[in-house]
Specification:
This protein is α+β, with helices and mostly antiparallel strands. It contains 16 helices and 23 strands. It has a 7-stranded mixed sheet. Strands 3-2-1-5-14-13 form a 6-stranded mixed sheet, sandwiched between helices. The radius of gyration is 22 Å and the shape is globular. Key enzyme in the regulation of glycerol uptake and metabolism. Catalyzes the phosphorylation of glycerol to yield sn-glycerol 3-phosphate.
């Protein structure tokens, strides 16, 4: 009798790393999580230690399996999902990073992006990559590391410039998925969704773009091979003599937001989901058409299965949502995120207070790297409850900003929105979102859909699941939230929100 098989998923996020194990019904059978340090060397700079992330990955994998009493050889496959644009460069032979990872939130290359815009490159970038020219993406981060990494961190015999070594393929570039796949299998691979977030990849030709590589001085020799998100040929296997003690196929990878789309079984054109994490990311599947946005959204790769065409998506990237709640905690206004619903419900409204959480600039649909966090409308009567409520409302308003842009671009009116991520455990926020957006909000039973999506991608590749219909059957609704607010009231408060956003824009200027 063979032991029961499962699929594992590494979910490497902005604030921590999770390992989850799923059964055939898509239910969680093992789960472990560990936070990592957020490094802020200067205002607007955000870094992570890639070595800490790898050590935490090993730790959560072994902890989850151990606590659930599952042997590593019971894993039919492992999938990887990751914070997307975060950028790592490392020495090929030693595996040592040449610099800390630059996180997607990092704004140090804003000046470089403005140079690109002034030079008329923004249109070329959008046309090829589907992305806005922004410091959010990997290209300017990789360029910065290549120019600024200290070669003295490498072995004495290798102390030529980091860029020279990258040109020889001795220093490797990758997003976090690539870093982890390399550590797990020894192979230098990314998937098409993560490649599409680098600002170096032509999403129409499905290849690295020579003109963009030259613009950013990123050598082709340091780039990973791009594979399907669910890969029948596998990315490689774990080392049987390594920390797991088993040879397990690593067969699927998706950037975290595409993984959530896959985990929410949004396989058809018009299906949409919003993930509420550190930021919020609203994706709509547009099928095999890469729909060009005229309203400040990104055109991105949704997923690709082996032997099948790429599926595309429209995406609204909102930089700060859950992180706004963390900010309230950091400054001592609340003790925990769980407090927010109770505090916010003590008041009927914000009393005209609006919080625009542009703490790392504004993403879609505004794209203003110099916007900064703004609270307007305060009086002597303003209490912390009003500010807490304004923070939750800001999450909902930013989602409406994106929803309106998405309907305008796609011509598809959204009937309901599938939601996931840590913040959707908050019923108050879900109801608020339904009221402000004017659409039904649908929360699934398994809300860790990011990990689930990467498990599905890996499991399909190894035949653990045969068809996507099996995955659709797994998807179960936990609760639906219908709009209860008068649409005119929602429109009125939304108009005031738009005025508050204008006041946050262009604030950070170099003196």
């Amino acid at each position: 009798m063979t032991s029961e098989q499962f699929v594992g998923a590494i979910d490497q996020g902005t604030t921590g790393t999770r390992f989850m194990v799923f059964d055939h019904a898509g239910q969680v059978v093992a789960n472990a999580y560990e936070k990592h340090e957020q490094i802020y060397p200067q205002p607007g700079w955000v870094e992570h230690d890639p070595v800490e992330i790898w050590e935490n990955t090993k730790s959560v994998m072994t902890d989850a399996l151990s606590e659930a009493g599952i042997d590593a050889d019971q894993l039919a496959a492992i999938g990887v999902t990751n914070q997307r644009e975060t950028t790592v460069l490392w020495d090929r032979d030693s595996g040592t990073p040449v610099h800390e990872a630059l996180v997607w939130q990092d704004r140090r290359t804003t000046d470089r992006v403005e140079e690109l815009q002034d030079a008329g490159m923004a249109g070329t970038i959008r046309e090829k990559t589907g992305l806005e020219a922004d410091a959010y993406f990997s290209a300017t981060k990789a360029e910065w590391i290549l120019e600024n990494a200290d070669p003295m961190k490498l072995e004495p015999a290798k102390q030529q410039s980091v860029r020279d070594r990258a040109e020889e393929g001795e220093v490797l570039f990758g997003t976090i998925d690539t870093w982890l796949i390399h550590k797990l299998t020894g192979n230098h691979i990314t998937d098409v969704t993560n490649a599409s977030r680098t600002m170096l990849y032509d999403i129409h030709d499905a290849d690295w773009d020579d003109e963009l590589l030259e613009e950013f001085g990123v050598p082709e020799a340091c780039l990973p091979e791009v594979r399907p998100s669910s890969d029948d040929d596998y990315y490689g296997h774990t080392d049987p003599d390594g920390f797991l003690g088993a040879e397990v196929p690593v067969a699927g990878a998706l950037g975290d937001q595409q993984a959530a789309l896959f985990g929410q079984t949004c396989f058809d054109a018009g299906d949409a989901k919003n993930t509420y994490g550190t930021g919020s990311f609203f994706l709509m599947n547009t099928g095999e058409d890469a729909v060009e946005s005229e309203h400040g959204l990104l055109t991105t790769v949704a997923f690709q299965r082996s032997g099948e065409p790429i599926n595309y998506a429209l995406e609204g990237s909102i930089f700060i949502t859950g992180a706004a709640v963390e900010f309230l905690e950091d400054i001592g206004l609340i003790k925990s995120a769980a407090q927010t619903a109770e505090l916010a419900s003590r008041v009927d409204s914000t009393d005209g207070v609006y919080f625009v959480p542009a703490l790392t600039g504004l993403g879609a649909p505004h794209w203003d790297g110099r916007a900064r966090g703004t609270i307007v409308g305060m009086t002597r009567g303003t209490k912390k409850e009003h500010i807490v409520r304004a923070t939750l409302e800001a999450i909902a308003y930013q989602t409406r900003d994106v929803a309106e842009a998405m309907e305008a671009d796609s011509g598809i009116e959204m009937g309901s929105l599938r939601v996931d991520g840590g913040a959707v455990k908050n019923d108050f926020l879900c109801q608020l979102q339904a009221d402000i957006i004017g659409s039904e909000i649908v929360r699934p039973e398994v809300d860790e859909t990011t990990a689930l999506g990467s498990a599905y991608a890996a499991g399909l590749a190894v035949g653990y699941w045969e068809t996507v219909d099996e995955l659709r059957d797994n998807w179960q609704i936990d609760r639906e939230f219908e709009s209860e607010m008068d649409p005119e009231d929602a429109d009125r408060t939304y108009e005031r929100w738009s005025e508050a956003v204008e006041r946050s824009r262009g604030w950070a200027r170099d003196e």
